[in-house]
Write a structure and sequence with these properties.
This protein is an alpha/beta fold. It has 2 domains: about 270 residues, TIM Barrel; about 110 residues, no CATH class. Helix content is about 40%, strand content about 15%. It has 16 helices and 15 strands. The strands form 4 sheets. The protein has an 8-stranded parallel beta barrel, surrounded by 6 helices. Strands 12-13-15 form a 3-stranded antiparallel β-sheet, with no helix packed on it. Helix 9 links the parallel strand 7 and strand 8. The longest helix has 17 residues.
């Protein structure tokens, strides 16, 4: 089973409070999504929003056209006669995602029209799109409430439009109200009622923290396309995060996608920088801490037979497994961290260093792997002359009215003769590295 991924980071994701991408940022993210991550489609803008949005869309469509990807770039349009279509067409867009009403309440209260009038308005836009050589997808906005309170209206819309020139029918849980049982039941009704030739997408929102679970249920029911955003960005509680969706599609549902998993972390970090919305450290797949084991028992199990691994291996996503140092550390945790430096302690020395790490953690001290060479020196010998410092990297930050500060990355090679007297051995050509924060005096 193959599932199509449409990423809407640049449209629905930009509806996150406080997020606004520049045209060049949008172009850069679009390239990453289509070229590096290899998503099937991207939704990049809403029609008529601003001149900046028009500029961004123009840049993206020009690049996409030169790379034969222009049919993978989609834009949200409205049932407003020819206004949205002309705006999109003038910017080079070739696919419109038409925002229609998927619940009778939305239709009657917001548009104040009958279902028949709404269908006629949609068909006029489809005819105009055909004349402009544009593809049309249909969003049934508030579809989830439609299925709950006005199912007959939803089926009227689908029955009436099923033979029109519509590429995809997109079913959004606009307000994030569904649970996984409802999602499965509603999607299954749709899939069973219509022929396989009709393509249905599911668009989840995360208001009840069920977006990924609902994606799981939608795909189980037979939905062919899923909408995501990088880092789960989106209005209110956000959308289904691309990283988590790919995890469940591949590992839980054994579905095929074209996504290049290895690039997910890189793209997530770039979107984090451009959006200004920080990734929570415990965010599955992409969070800073999600591949870090804290318990010494876990480190010991990993050392013996990878007992605490699951299928979400960090290497899949361009990450590495880490072992946190602190009061819950055991000898296996310290040993795992020392291996990163090419250091190997005798059992007696390892016990001493582990005890010091636990003591520091008990005092709420933040212990990092880069602290280990200093801890070893403190516990096993304090001869500072045994260190030579090599500056590897240097960064300086300065803010108005504050003292400047710097970070210096240094290498600390300890003399092997001195190390061996403490039962320490080093891998060949290895050097412990550490970042040292330094406060500079303001002149």
């Amino acid at each position: 089973m193959r599932v199509e991924i449409m990423d809407t980071t640049l449209r629905d994701g930009e509806q996150t409070q406080g997020v606004s991408y520049s045209p060049l940022e949008k172009l850069h993210i679009a390239k990453l999504l289509l070229k590096d991550l290899r998503v099937d489609r991207i939704e990049v803008a809403s029609a008529r929003v601003s001149s900046g949005e028009f500029d961004a869309l123009s840049k993206i469509t020009e690049w996409a056209r030169h790379n034969n990807l222009h049919r993978k770039v989609e834009v949200l349009g409205f049932v407003d006669g020819e206004v949205s279509l002309n705006w999109i067409n003038d910017a080079g867009g070739k696919v419109v995602n038409l925002l229609c009403k998927g619940s009778l309440r939305h239709l009657e209260k917001q548009l104040r029209k009958t279902p028949e009038q709404h269908v006629n308005d949609i068909r006029k836009i489809i005819t105009k799109a055909e004349a402009l050589d544009m593809q049309v997808n249909i969003y049934l906005e508030d579809w989830s409430n439609g299925m709950i309170s006005s199912e007959e209206y939803v089926f009227y819309m689908l029955d009436t439009l099923r033979n029109d020139n519509i590429q995809r029918f997109m079913l959004p849980d606009t307000l994030g109200i569904l649970n996984q049982e409802q999602t499965y039941d509603f999607c299954k009704k749709i899939i069973d009622r219509y022929p396989p030739e009709l393509h249905f997408d599911f668009h989840a929102h995360n208001d009840y923290d069920l977006a990924v679970a609902n994606v799981y249920s939608a795909v189980r029911a037979g939905i062919k396309g899923i909408h995501t955003t990088v880092n789960g960005l989106g209005e209110r509680a956000g959308n289904a995060p691309l990283s988590s969706v790919i995890g469940i599609l591949r590992d839980q549902l054994h579905a095929d996608t074209d996504i290049n998993e290895y690039e997910i972390t890189k793209v997530s970090k770039i979107v984090e920088t451009f959006s200004g919305i920080r990734i929570p450290v415990n965010k599955p797949v992409i969070g800073e801490n999600v591949f870090t084991q804290t318990s010494g028992v876990h480190a010991d199990g990993d050392s013996k037979d990878n007992l605490y691994y699951n299928n979400l291996m960090p290497e899949r996503f361009g990450r590495k497994r880490k072992y946190a140092l602190g009061k819950q550390s055991g000898k296996a945790t310290v040993r795992k961290n020392l291996e990163e430096f090419g250091l190997f302690l005798s059992p007696e020395s390892l016990s001493k260093v582990t005890q010091r790490v636990i003591e520091l953690g008990d005092k709420k001290e933040n212990v990092t792997a880069e602290d280990l060479p200093f801890i070893i020196a403190d516990v096993l010998g304090n001869d500072k002359s045994n260190y030579k410092i090599f500056i590897k990297n240097y960064s300086l930050s300065l803010s108005y009215g504050l003292k400047p500060s710097a970070n210096i990355q240094v290498e600390l090679p300890m003399r092997l003769s001195r190390l061996s007297s403490h039962g320490i051995s080093m891998a060949r050509n290895s050097r412990p590295r550490v970042w040292m924060p330094i406060r500079l005096n303001q002149q």
